[in-house]
Amino acid sequence: MSRLLLAFLLLAAAPAARAQTAPRAQDSAFVRDNYTKLDRQLTMRDGVKLYTIIYVPKDASTATPYPFLMTRTPYSAGPYGEQKYRPRGPGPSRELSTEKYIFVYQDVRGRYMSEGKFEEMTPAIPAGTTARGNTVRHDESTDTFDTIEWLLKNVPNNNGRVGMMGISYPGFYASAALPNAHPALKAVSPQAPVTDEFIGDDARHKGAFFLLDNFEFTNYFDVPRPQPVAEYKPLFKFETKDAYRFFLDLGPIKNANGPKYFNNRARIWNEYQQHETYDAYWQARNIRTALTGVKPAVLVVGGWFDAEDLYGALNTYKAIEKQNPGATNRLVMGPWTHGAWARPDWSKFGPLSFGSNTADTFRKTLETPFFNFYLKDKGSFNPAEATVFNTGTNEWKTYPAWPPAATEGKLYFKKAGGLAFATETDLKSQAEARRLKDMKITPASEYTQYLSDPANPVPYTDGIHGERNTEYMIEDQRFAAKRPDVLTFRTETLPDALTLAGPLTADLWVSTSGTDADFVVKVIDEQPDGTQRLVRAEVMRGRFRNSFSRPEAFKPNQPTKVKYELPDVLHTFAKGHRMMVQVQSTWFPLVDRNPQTFVPIATADAKDFQKATIRLYHDAGHPSAVQVSVLP
After folding, report:
1. Rounded CA gap, 101 and 257, in Å?
2. Burial, 407: exposed, middle or buried (Cβ in 10 Å; 0-12, 13-18, 19+)?
């Protein structure tokens, strides 16, 4: 996450920071006139005190008792002190502030003004194991449980119901409250929740380290804190106008721990580097496996253009759905970047115009009615199971399930850059190739190749940028298509519109002259004017092709299957457009460079980085393809 995104998250956690347009003085006056602010230190079951700020409506003693709406955050619950009010409304949005709740903000354990030691994505503990001998065990569920117990007993005139929400890391804390939830917790909305940092969220994607985001974010977040503090200072001054050049000059990733930068002061950064496989460290921090026995109503929210936690939103919903038959669990996916649904207006993004204020629509028709219904018995709330924005037609669609029922198909790579669904002839040729393979007869291979050079990696975005260009999620890919180390395949012009819904799967046959390689697959909407708009992209660190826990070297120049899933889409390719797929092996500096030799990357030296010839096979015996789901 960039500094700007971190600042946004701090504001997003603040009530209506992006959702109210009145002057600051008027907003502060509204809070003071209508709410009483309480700063409290709440003692958890192991004695650790968590700093908690509570905004209580002044009419709570005379009106109908109010429910609680809570956000737990590592990004500061402040401002601190009962005479220091949030500059805007007390709630997470203008709409919820107007509705009035007892709003609660809490610094999680080990962050800002709370006591204790911070743990990166605190591993969940099983129910019934909160005590072991003389040790009291805790996780985010128990801290939430203890907080709710205190609130119910110590804040007068509450109605006995609690809701939780949060965006990004606070979204993780919302998810983490669901296992073994307090009976008073009735409604939870994990929004862009960090969910599985090795497989698809902030730290790594399919094992590949997201260098640009983590370098900058860690500098501000992963700062040693010997005691509670109201403010953190960065570990080092970091300003660059050209991130591509900076990280190329930085060299191997181990240089980030040099005296000018982290200098071994960043504990979480070191943990990320020490755990290069999906080992017990990462597995314990995958909250999905703990999402069982879910009783509160859940509204999972995510954005199709979220560069950080698109995976988290989709897979939190899917995990709850799979592991909790009958749970009240709904999904919303809009045309949003990270947390953009909390902004006052989200009618456009870069060159895209959505025809309406999608953020306002979400808050008024989904988020506010969700909490009002489950916490206040106000109004009704019966939306579809999935409310999803089609990024190709700019319209909201609803489905009784996500992914919706669709027809599976494969788009095969062809020679001369072709891309097409399988024909009967293709299927017969593949069957014949399998028969020959069984007879140990190897027909001639057909492939397209490129030279992947770690010293000249493919940039993830066009132009020069100092921080992450969030618009890379929808960017015109013609800049990449010009490079010899990017392969491009395209369909014929589509005679009719074609809608893809659900996950995409890259099913590649590849070889490398080295012993490791990354593979980036990009699905693109090529428009009649030549614009190549990115629809979805994902990276796979090749050593994890068979197991994220047990990496394997490639055998040089031997055709090998690499298959992995890209995050879901809902996108209509219009009549007259083309579907396009690009394949490459670097995506820099968004993703760290693979040395292309099978060595531990965290400790690799400059000499370990080698050029490699990458071949993508597309013959009957090695039918590389992208698997898609097509709506009727």
Report:
1. 46
2. exposed
Identify which has the larger pLDDT, 533 or 1.
Answer: 533
pLDDT tens-digit readout, 394-448: 999 999 999 999 999 999 999 999 999 987 777 777 877 777 677 777 666 899 9
DSSP H helices, 14-163, are 24-34, 94-99, 140-154
* Angle (nearest 5°) at CA 100 between 94 and 104: 90
pLDDT for residue 547 is more than 50: yes
- Collapsing DSSP states into helix, strand and coil, what is residue 595? coil
Respond yes or no on whether the N-terminal peptide bond of residue 403 is cis (omega within 30° of 0): yes
- Counting Cα atoms < 13 Å in the Cβ hemisphere of 137 gives 13
Euclidean distance between CA atoms 389 and 313, whole angstroms = 14
d(CA 92, CA 103): 9
Give every CB contact of residue 622 below 8 A, 6+ residues apart in sequence: 445, 447, 509, 559
**Spatial distance between the Cα atoms of 62 and 380, rounded to a whole number of angstroms:** 25
DSSP 46-58: TS-EEEEEEEEET
The answer to whether 54 and 102 are in contact (CB under 8 A) is: yes
Which residues partner with 105 through β-bridges? 53, 71
Contact at 8 Å (CB) between 536 and 618? no
Is residue 63 scored above 90 in pLDDT?
no
Query: What confidence tens digit (pLDDT) does each residue in 93-114 have?
Result: 999 999 999 999 999 999 999 9
Instruction: Please state whether the predicted TM-score (pTM) of the whole model is above 0.85.
Output: yes
Q: How far is residue 101's CA from residue 88's CA, in Å, rounded to a whole number?
A: 15
Q: How far apart are CA 96 and CA 588, in angstroms?
A: 41
* CA–CA gap between residue 529 and residue 5 (Å, rounded): 33
3-state secondary structure at position 512: strand
Integer Cα distance of 404 and 626 in angstroms:
19
DSSP state of 588: B
CA distance 313 to 502: 13
Place of tokens 């949060």: 166
CB 614 within 8 A of CB 510: yes
C-alpha dist (Å) from residue 44 to 114, 131, 136, 143, 165: 11, 13, 10, 6, 21
